[in-house]
Amino acid sequence: MARKPKINVADELVAAVAEAAAIVRGEADAARVHLAPDVPDVRAIREKMGLTREAFAERFGLRVAALRDWEQGLRRPDPAARTLLKVIAAEPDAVVRALAA
């Protein structure tokens, strides 16, 4: 089994600072962050149903603050919430029935 070469942390830090300086000077582009493709568009789901944030949150047992943060891109739904949102988008009545049971 081949050994991994040791990483020189000092060299890594110097390189990172040099890269940051180049970005600030406009000599390099900053890295881009992309959301995973499985993150649902929460606002589109809610608006398609014609519900306010408050009504959507109440109907599906979500916190209004969490819904707002997801819609504004301040936070991302965790995996369980993403799954729930996908089911809501596909079968909202089934979710309402399940929650009422």
Automatic annotation (TrEMBL):
Q: Which residues cross the membrane?
A: none
Matching InterPro entries: Cro/C1-type_HTH, HTH-type_reg/antitoxin, Lambda_DNA-bd_dom_sf
State the organism named in the record.
Falsiroseomonas selenitidurans
In this chain the HTH cro/C1-type domain maps to 42-95
User: What is the name of the protein in this document?
Assistant: Helix-turn-helix domain-containing protein
Q: Which Pfam families match?
A: HTH_3 (PF01381)
Query: Keywords assigned by UniProt?
Result: DNA-binding, Transcription, Transcription regulation
Keyword Secreted among record annotations: no
- What superkingdom heads the lineage? Bacteria
Q: Which Gene3D superfamilies match?
A: lambda repressor-like DNA-binding domains
Family annotation (PROSITE patterns): HTH_CROC1 (PS50943)
